[in-house]
Amino acid sequence: MSGDANLLFLSIIVQDMDQFRQYEQVEAIRNRIPALSRTVYGKPLVYLDNAATAQKPDVVIERVDAMNRGVNGNIHRAVHRLSEETTLWYEQARDQVRDFIGAAAREEVIFTSGTTAAINTVAYAWCTQFLKAGDAVLVTEAEHHSNIVPWQLACQRAGATLRVLPVDDKGQWQMDVLETLLDERVKLVAAAHISNVLGLVNPVQALIDAAHRVGACVLIDGAQGIVHAPVDVQALDCDFYVFSGHKLYAETGTGILYGKRVWLEQMPPFLGGGDMVDTVTFEKTTYAPLPLKFEAGTGNFIGAASLAPAIDFAREMMGGQFEENQLEISAYLKEEFSKIDGLRVYGEGEHKIPLFSFSVEGCNHGDIATLLDKLGIAVRSGLMCCEPLITRFGHTGLVRASFAPYNTLAEAAVLVQGLHRVLRMLRG
Ligand SMILES: Cc1ncc(COP(=O)(O)O)c(C=O)c1O
Which one of 3.40.630.30, 2.40.30.110, 3.40.1160.10, 3.40.640.10 gives the CATH number of domain 71-314? Predict the structure, then answer.
């Protein structure tokens, strides 16, 4: 189904479309994302699982395709033309990431396979060097498993302990408790810029400043933050900032570890292998300079190169109509959800992205998501890799609708109508 046909179909489902303002820039960008015009079960896809993975625009698909068709030589290794061209596109993407996040130097930008791999790199390499028995690592109660488990493993290896900053009933960090948890034993603090369950933009600047006052190093999990908030790692003064390519419209299996050079230089390598070495003998190996010291083996170099067009695309969707559109979606859903009996949204705060995780009294999250899917509406359900947080709210799972800048108010209306229909079915 073409983009226009999809729009027509939506207007049939959602009566009185005129009440929903349309933004021509949003509509135009949608036409550049092929997946958005597909159907599921004969219905137009309403894709609201963007926090899990975003759909890819033509520019990313074309870059990957062009590379697979003719710009595919293993990077950094050979003198032949293909290797040279591939290396150029890979390294250009690094420069673009550096510029996008405001890093001081390209050597501070490491390609990884994603957020999880980036966190594990720090949890292994930084903690091997700096975390000792009796020390502590501090995380928050609202972290993704990827920002909990690597630290648990590191603490077990070092004989350190994991401390947890709790959230309140709104899902906000309990900053008044922070002072009691932060002391000189805490060597590293790891926290999400934006929660993938609550959608709250966390007060990371206050956390970074407080952590630095006790001499702790800070890693910000930017898996959601990089998509929805402007990021300037130097202004933030975080020690590490990590994110995944696939949530930022780039190829899957790509990600970034930003680290201050002062730390990266002192950290031992995480993985050993090709490209991360300088000289190798059986007696001793010396390592390549940054950033290659942390890029062992053949990574997803074509995927990494796709970060360049993906960032251009992300920039096109910042501010202006896209921002207005998202504010309208949030206001509309807040209002509509408040009218549904027994529905509770988790994550209340002034700074919240259009991401809504909710429970409905008497209905199972999995059932809601399964029935919505049959209406063509893709949402996430379950623990969302945040079991401690969801347990804290007394649930075994929630339903989550997460919007990207390319989603429309009409799609939000389809969700609301779909939800009413599903709840009528489930409640009998
Ligand atoms: C906040 C947060 N952290 C970490 C991750 C893990 O990302 P990945 O699976 O791409 O490594 C996610 C993915 O949903 C996330 O939302």
Answer: 3.40.640.10
